[in-house]
Automatic annotation (TrEMBL):
It comes from Dreissena polymorpha (Zebra mussel). This is Lipoxygenase domain-containing protein. Residues 1-57 form the Lipoxygenase domain. GO terms for molecular function: metal ion binding; oxidoreductase activity, acting on single donors with incorporation of molecular oxygen, incorporation of two atoms of oxygen.
Length: 57
């Protein structure tokens, strides 16, 4: 999901879009973490941090 072993995006617009996408995933992850504190049991499966090859460390 946006993480590549090699840099495959070179044009400025593509770099900007990829950066925005990564920021959106971080925001989504933060929102899901907050919501999961109130869920019993928590549902972490759609959190971008939990998805293999995700772009959030």
């Amino acid at each position: 999901m946006g993480e590549y072993e090699m840099n495959l995006v070179y044009d400025q617009e593509g770099v900007r879009l990829l950066k925005d996408f990564k920021q959106d995933l971080r925001a989504l992850s933060a929102t899901l973490k907050i919501k999961n504190r109130m869920r019993v049991p928590p549902y972490p499966f759609l959190d971008p941090c939990e998805i293999p090859n995700s772009m959030i460390p």
